[in-house]
Amino acid sequence: MDASKQKAIASKGGKASHAHGTGHEWTASSAREAGRKGGLASHGGRGKKAGNP
């Protein structure tokens, strides 16, 4: 599937979820928390304790 077709399908899904009231809206704090969790998960096996920067 080419990228433009995939993007169009994803866009329809996103619009439908927001119209239904189940779409997600990122806030600065929720984005920050998600990034923190991702960083802990991706770097967790490098000898650092989880939760320590």
Brief sketch in words of this structure:
64% of the residues lie in helices and 0% in strands. The chain has 53 residues and is mostly helical. 0% of the residues are buried.
Integer average pLDDT: 83
Helix/strand order: HH
Largest sheet: none
N-to-C terminal Cα separation, in Å?
40 Å
Structural class: mainly alpha
Number of strands: 0
Distinct helical segment count: 2
- Identify low-pLDDT runs: none
Roughly what fraction of the amino acids lie in strands? under 5%
How much is the radius of gyration in Å? 17 Å
Helix content: 55-70%
Write down the overall geometry. flat
Note the topology:
Layout: H1 3-20, H2 28-43
Descriptive report:
The chain has 53 residues and is mainly alpha-helical. It is built from two helices and no strands. The longest helix is centred in the first third of the chain and has 18 residues. It is flat and about 35 Å long. The model has no long low-confidence stretch (mean pLDDT 83).
Notable features of this structure?
single chain, about 55 residues, mainly alpha
